[in-house]
Amino acid sequence: MSDIPHLPALRLGRPYESLDKIEVKDHRTGEVRALVSQVNGGILKRDFTKLTAARASLKKFTVAELLALSAKAGELFLNGTLPFGDRGHTQSPAEYIATLSGTSGLPHVMVKRNMTKLHYALTHLGEVLNGLSRGLDFSIIDRGYGEQFGTKLSFFPTCSALGLVMPSNSPAVNSLWLPAIALKTPVVISPARRSRGRPTG
């Protein structure tokens, strides 16, 4: 096992190791704490042609099943020791806090607070969806149509995927994309150049 963890890019749910990697360094000592694989524009274009298959994979689940998976991911994120990259490393919540603080400069208390916010978002995603959809019955999302409040309703996506560039200096905003998975919408995330990684499910 290498001493330095490697965080692969995830392409359609599969790990990908690039030739060129970014070094994530401790902001005080300059020590390399992790290597992060990159995905270039050509690879993205190739993957964009497969977004229909990615959405089909999500459509196999009901909204209720995706909410349950999200809640489980939230518990593991806050309390579990998780795989950290693809070279046999693991990371406990305490190690995550120390690593993110060391590589971003954020105080430990702020990292812990952001972890709690992400946990809450993942474990209360049903409430979030309820607010976003104004109380839409989740079975209508599953079927694409139905009747509620005495009105015939339909639900359909207006895009193939949700694309985001996530900042490294405000980890709490990393919860903004979470409802997309429960709505069966693939997500394309580009971390900002100095972003740090931790598995969330």
Report on the architecture of this protein.
Helix 3 (63-79) runs antiparallel to helix 5 (108-123). The protein is of the alpha/beta class. It has one domain (50-191). Strand 4 and strand 5 form a beta hairpin. The chain has eight helices and eleven strands. 41% of the residues lie in helices and 20% in strands. It has helices at 41-48, 51-59, 63-79, 93-104, 108-123, 125-133, 138-143, 178-182; strands at 6-7, 9-11, 14-16, 21-25, 32-37, 82-83, 90-91, 145-148, 151-154, 162-166, 187-191. It is globular and about 65 Å long. The strands form five sheets. Strands 1-5-4 form a three-stranded mixed sheet. Strands 2-3 form a two-stranded antiparallel ribbon. The two termini are 23 Å apart.
Features of the shown structure:
201 residues, alpha/beta, three-stranded mixed beta sheet, 8 helices, 20% strand, disordered C terminus
Number of helices: 8
How many distinct domains?
Answer: 1
- SS-derived structural category: alpha/beta
Give the termini separation.
Answer: 23 Å
Q: Per the principal axes of the C-alpha atoms, what is the gross shape?
A: globular
Order of helices and strands: EEEEEHHHEEHHHHEEEHE
Characterize the largest beta sheet: strand count, sense, and whether it forms a barrel. 3 strands, mixed
**DSSP strand count:** 11
Instruction: Strand order, main sheet: write it out.
Output: 1-5-4
Strand residue content = 15-25%
Helical content band = 40-55%
Mean residue pLDDT? 90
Q: Ranges with pLDDT <50 over ≥5 residues? A: 195-201
The whole-angstrom Rg is 18 Å
